Amino acid sequence: MNFCDFPELAKVARGESAAEIVFRGGNVVNVFTGEVIQTSVAVTNGTVVGIGDQYVGETEIDLSGKYLCPGFLDGHLHLESTMVTPAELVEQAVQCGTTTYIVDPHEAANVSGAAGIDYILEETDDVPANVFVMMPSCVPSLPFEDNGCTFDAAEMQRYIDNPRVLGLGEVMDYVSTVGAAPAMVEKLALFDGMPKDGHAPGLSGKELNAYVLAGITNDHECSGFLEAMEKRRLGMHIHVREGSAARNLEPIVRGIVETKQDISGFSFCTDDKHIEDIHTEGHIDFCIRKAIACGMKPVDAIRMATINTARQYNLQHQVGAIAPGMQADFVVLDDLETVAVSKVFHKGVDVADFHAQPKLPMDSPLRRTMHSLPVQPEQLQLPVGESNDVIRVIPNEIVTGHDTVTLPQQDGLFVANAEFSKIAVVERHRNTGKVGVGAVAGFCIQGGAIASTVAHDSHNLSVIGDNDADMLLAIAHLREIGGGYTLVEHGKILSTVALPIMGLMSDAGFESVQKELSKMIAKAHEMGVPQDVSPLTLLSFLALPVIPALRITPRGLFDVEQMKFIQA
Amino acid sequence: MNFCDFPELAKVARGESAAEIVFRGGNVVNVFTGEVIQTSVAVTNGTVVGIGDQYVGETEIDLSGKYLCPGFLDGHLHLESTMVTPAELVEQAVQCGTTTYIVDPHEAANVSGAAGIDYILEETDDVPANVFVMMPSCVPSLPFEDNGCTFDAAEMQRYIDNPRVLGLGEVMDYVSTVGAAPAMVEKLALFDGMPKDGHAPGLSGKELNAYVLAGITNDHECSGFLEAMEKRRLGMHIHVREGSAARNLEPIVRGIVETKQDISGFSFCTDDKHIEDIHTEGHIDFCIRKAIACGMKPVDAIRMATINTARQYNLQHQVGAIAPGMQADFVVLDDLETVAVSKVFHKGVDVADFHAQPKLPMDSPLRRTMHSLPVQPEQLQLPVGESNDVIRVIPNEIVTGHDTVTLPQQDGLFVANAEFSKIAVVERHRNTGKVGVGAVAGFCIQGGAIASTVAHDSHNLSVIGDNDADMLLAIAHLREIGGGYTLVEHGKILSTVALPIMGLMSDAGFESVQKELSKMIAKAHEMGVPQDVSPLTLLSFLALPVIPALRITPRGLFDVEQMKFIQA
Description:
Two copies of one chain form a homodimer. Chain A has 568 residues and is of the alpha/beta class. Helix content of chain A is 26%, strand content 26%. In chain A, strands 1, 2, 3, 4, 5, 14, 15 and 16 form an eight-stranded mixed β-sheet that branches. Chain A has an eight-stranded parallel β-sheet with strand order 6-7-8-9-10-11-12-13. In chain A, helix 3 (106-112) packs across helix 4 and helix 12 (284-293) runs antiparallel to helix 13 (298-305). Chains A and B meet through helix 1, strand 3, helix 7, helix 8 and helix 9 of A and helix 1, strand 3, helix 7, helix 8 and helix 9 of B.
């Protein structure tokens, strides 16, 4: 509520004038007391003004037999990692009842820095939901990364008073944090007293103490209940993550239920959830359903999806509950068992009719982020010896193995075959001409190449193939169209998804993107990629030098366990 | 923790240097998870740096067999209503484990405005505890009150950035709040988004909705569980009050226990607790013991006394739990059944040796707050008719009856007797010469008069007696010594407690104040005041025109139920 409205709204609360809308006679989920109470909710100007059957509305919405919940919150996600525009993603997820998003635009920041963050803010300022932003804390993710921009404390300064900016985004660089590296300390200090998102899979003991001492207030990387409890004991709030890839809900919620743990320190997040998964299984509503299936009481699962998240971000007087002065963000459910979402309201308005319109001008620099030199055939050559380091693909995982093998070769140069493919990562932000080349075992693409400009976190151009000509064609094509995914077979471009916005997103609409992607993935499997390897997801992570064991960057192969490059 | 200290403290957390102190091997109460875990706590620079037995300290404190809790918080109290200096009160209460105080200095503000608030802030800035201040919201308590100062939004402005000022103090004037009166709206708007303490006994339904809409975040006036639950349902946090007079803990805690209500929205406060009661039964530790006696689990009672209160005031990253980065405010308990406090630490330092030194200069204007004209004998005359409005004292209560009787009289003027005493309230802040005179039934003082400058909330001089001469002597004496309590019998001052600081407090030390007060109270009973009437407490409340049914102010008798003065 804007406090200027208080005198007018107080009149409605006192019953002296009618409310704009009364949501009449539903079973209202009270996240404060855990009760479900049949009553009515009066709304004016997008704000809950009063609760009780005594209120009269200019419009009345009959909720007899239905359940009325506060709108759900997603405690941590990346809007730009789903290929569609932020507005389009929100348009989809809000239908599932998620009316508040705590986003970390670190993909955008890695490509375009502050301009990328501004894009996320502007693109979501009129969606039918609340989108709050955490400042990306690790851009680049490691000092030697060839990403598009460095986003430091000085750059963050101008966002600090933005009411949509809530704190510091996931602090992945736990080494700099625990070690109090000056550049990290500067960022941590800037957000002192504000929420700071953690990202500390497996961090424990003394290092975890130091990490919490740095003021990190939450973590979304717990994969099990014991890990979550070690962090809870030190005061961290736990976002239980259930996205497309990482699915941690079941073990953690089962642990909560079995030990009767207080839920107030737990909430839900999706982190990365593809739009097709949102479409088929839902968003935060899916987390609620799954938690209930794990034995949690429905009202407790709803608390995790609402007020608990709101409190973590100091939003508890604005969203996350149905009470006077709070935003009229509501989810109408058919019942509390299936949590079937029947209607969603944002500031008292039904969200069903909203459709995002692309906003980014065609001449925006964010549509021209391919700054790379043409790659020459000799840049893809990989000299090999008797013993060579090879990235080993592990089915259904994004972690890799690190093999040492004798590679197939001719004249001292690697030649791909059915088992060993070639991978190249081309720097695409600053025309440096850097190209890292390596070998991958288990990807098995034959007769062509597949390429992507979505390659966490630096989003350089990654390409895997069995011959240099097709790889060069894929590289040239993505360079020409401003980024995206492309698949080449025997000298012919078979399928392309253009992602012109920062090389990450398309504003062509989810359906056309999805249709082409499905086609491309099917074709990649036909070309030899095993069914238990997701070609595009894997391609997007093979250049991320923080995930074990072996990765490749424009500077070459990187041994994550040793934290050092492998000398050719 | 001052974030500048982070790099140094991180070294200790990482185990690379020794902690200043390790609290070794106690049973540590974890208010996040509800567990009690035997472990050790490392402290440096007054801050918890790490938790775990791996830490080594330059000093080690053995806590084997003991229980280590976070320091307790008092969610709402008035430091200056206990007659001793704020520092002296804290010195006493901190021994009981209360290391954080959320105070509303509205007595001081009523007498001396901003200077009174500054006194409370300065006097407590080096006590061995955290003292935070809420801005008094209702000074004066009603527009027609003859208090010392008006404290409005413009005056509050200069406190808004003070890190020890957390929000708006108890909003007693619910009529102006619910009615959105402009002066109140200005104050509410100033603290928009910050904690705002409520004071709304019995407020319900539409009016309660409007009150919550105004952004009032908590209430400490609930006398029963059902009232507390109506407020909880609208999102209000409930401070369960257990002070010297108002004792609401038992019914509310029993309700929580019986209905298994989530405790996260409840905490404890004392509001007003006399130093002798703190001395005999304890402070917030007493609330914990009493809650346990009502069936609450000890750890839940400790959560109510710690993290729950901290969260309500956005202090949860500073106090209320034992975790890295938080202040080392600890209470060592012998066990969790008796909650016997064995030691208390503030910022890692034992508080036992602290003794407050009076700080207020002898020439401070706060020691000269009696600004009243001499009262002339004719000013105490009370003309009476056949039917007269009389304040009826109700044993053991501060509410009064409102009788209409024929008073004993001579020449048309009231003459006191064993049943009906005379009361006068003398304006003492601005030399206005206003004196209100009335009759009181059931106080029964004979052969003298008793007077006080502690008279909520305006703190004018109140006197009750059976003869004008002794009343005039009592008035003159308090005027001369700068305020306090005095008892006169047959023309002789029998007993006086000087309260030179604003007419409210003494820096002569609790023991001397207490000794003289006991003597005075005993003597008052000897002079006829019934044993079930507390003479000084009653005297302090008879001028408060918000407590039913009939009160007296310097402007005369006030009918609280009709909210109007009674015409003489």
